Amino acid sequence: MKKVAILMIVVALLISGCQYTSHLVLGSTMEELMNQYTLCYSFNPLSVFQADSNYLAVLFDDQDNVCKVVEYTSNRKAIQTEGLSLLEDGDFVQYIGMEMQKLQEEIGVPHFDSGSGFYIPAYITEHGYFIEIFFDDTVICKIVKRDIFTGKVVETVPKVISN
């Protein structure tokens, strides 16, 4: 009986020691996040912070409070999300030529506007990227895929051919 009790205590200690600590920060301000985490970059209104070995991709509302957040591991696995449904990574060429309204019917409203003066709808993906949708009138003409950890362009659809 004594051995069973000791075993249960050891198992309980192991489980409690392996619990995951959430870094989700809904309602926090940029200043609060800057005091707690390391800012990797900011891309209107998306900011990415390093939290221990993980990354937080946060979106701010009009009052500069966090309204949406995704936590990724360093190997691009989304482990927690609040306030949005992530877009599946895939072949985005299928959206070229599609009406913006039809795209929104298929995959939902954009997660944020990445434009600075121009409206550029953007979606965050499940593997640590975001895609920006460029359209002419209402028809999608280009999609840019960016690394959410760095903001750097990873892919452009259609591909730009240089002479």
In short:
The protein has 163 residues and is α+β, with helices and mostly antiparallel strands.
Textual characterization of the structure:
This protein is α+β, with helices and mostly antiparallel strands and 163 residues long. Helix content is 19%, strand content 36%. It contains 3 helices and 10 strands. It has a 5-stranded antiparallel β-sheet, with helices on one face. The protein has a 5-stranded antiparallel β-sheet with strand order 6-7-8-9-10, with no helix packed on it. Strand 4 and strand 5 (78-82) form a beta hairpin. The longest helix is centred in the N-terminal third of the chain and has 16 residues, at 2-17. It is globular, with a radius of gyration of 20 Å. The termini are far apart. The relative contact order is 0.14. The model is unreliable at 4-20 (pLDDT under 50).
Give the SSE layout.
Elements: H1 2-17, H2 30-36, E1 38-43, E2 46-51, E3 54-60, E4 66-72, E5 78-82, H3 100-107, E6 112-113, E7 121-124, E8 129-136, E9 139-147, E10 153-157
Antiparallel strand pairs: 1-2, 2-3, 3-4, 4-5, 6-7, 7-8, 8-9, 9-10
What is the approximate shape? globular
Distance between the termini: 80 Å
Low-confidence stretches: 4-20
Indicate the structural class. alpha+beta
Give the topology string: H per helix, E per strand: HHEEEEEHEEEEE
The biggest beta sheet reads: 5 strands, antiparallel
Mean pLDDT: 85
Q: How would you classify the quaternary structure?
A: single chain
Instruction: Please list the strands of the largest sheet in the order they lie side by side.
Output: 1-2-3-4-5
Number of strands: 10
Rg from C-alpha positions?
20 Å
Helix content: 10-25%
Q: Count of helices?
A: 3
Quote the beta fraction. 35-45%
